[in-house]
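Sequence in, structure out. Go.
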Amino acid sequence: MGTGDAGTAGSPSAMIPAENRLGRKAVHELEKKVFATVQQYKMLNPGEKVLVAVSGGVDSMTLLFVLRRLPLDLRLHVFHLNHGLRPEAAAEQELVEKICAQWGLPCRVEKIRLKKRARGASLQERARRERYRLLAEAAQAAGAARIALGHQADDQVETVLMRFLTGAGPEGLSGIPPVRGPYIRPLLAVGREEILAYAREHSLPWLEDTSNRETAYFRNRIRHCLLPLLQEEYQPGLGKRLQETAVLFREWEEFIGAAVEETLREWGVNPEGESYRIPVRSWLSLAPALRRAVFRRLFFSLVQRRRAALPAGDVGTGGIRLEFKHSEAFLRLLTAENGKKIILPGGMECRKENDRLVLGPRGERERVVPFRQRLTVPGETVLPGGRGMVKAAWVTPAALPADWGEVPPGEVFLDGQEIVLPLYMRTRKPGDRFYPLGLGGSKKLKDYFSDRKIPRGERDRVLLLVDGRDRILWVAGGQPDARACITKETRRVLHLSFFTRAGEGFFYCGNNPSMV
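Output:
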């Protein structure tokens, strides 16, 4: 077994070229590539603690060896998973433990036993999910913020081609990300043949995974049959072209991902919600590509939350894919009549109600949780759960509108002298009454809703402005309370505007664009 040189420690400047920062007389080209990848994607900092996933194969053994040689003085911890699925599993564990002892590296080994036949996800999917779960546990125990994986350039090529054949959009064709959360892939710019040559040159030990030669697996057929054919008969540089394709799509995904997050912030939508109720007009204001991207973002956030809530060992939601036909059905639903719905994977559905789309778990009644949010006065308050935003400002009577009929339903002017701070937006509760302006007396809120034919299912979503005494000052989108209305004696005015999107004045109650 060749252990190689442990390298020299240091905190190199990011401005010095990679080949100079490595600082040894004969730096291998593969190490230069790995170090350049680490620097390009800001994977590691000098002295950082890193958990390295090592299976015992040539890729992960090379990864571990190279990370030891980088001039970053990394504190490496090794994780090995013995899943018992292959005859050589015991030998792989023995090899990893032996090399860690020889190199003086802490090693954590986990053993699992998965049933080959189980309802739901495939054996490979269940093994992958369990591996990532245990990796996260091991990283936390070791105090490591980064987890290094051994995916390399040929894995990237196979992934992009495989996803193209099975159907994928920009996200899928972006391939394996160099960095995602705590996970890093320093070998992603290095090919399989380069790794094999490097491992032989440095006398690294490894064990071959015999299942990699079995063409019963789709990925292996891509690797051993389709790719060689395409490279020989059609495009000798196909591997390089597919790697470049992944980079281009990854850049696009970063761009569109930022646009998605900005859209959700403008809408006031929390992407960690249990369901989403968003006006059709908001969706239609987006370009089609952004509509699809926002839809995918919300869909997968729901699926992930549902998966996280499952009991340990439940794999009923594994391998969920959102296909082109699903996003097409979603786009058609935007212009469909109210009452239509589409069935989505993962136990989800999307239905159209009162000119809004409701995305959430299939067949489950939406739970309306009582809501109360203190407002910043003066200032802006983003209401959680996609409820919108409130702007509040103190103005003088000179700023009052000349024609009250031109005041949008999402705005209200109140007499500041009749208000007890702080102010809140909340949903209704039993016994609510207020004094609708122009009525000449009080009215039960439920009767007010009934008179205006607000559907019973919507009444718990309508927001109310209340003051520090919990008096209703305004049914948002409807009438203000007569006790705080503007009079000739008013000297200080509170102007409130309720928005569903930053910079837009259209109003909705409980994500309902119709007015109260």
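Check: DSSP finds 15 helices and 20 strands in the chain. The mean pLDDT is 86.
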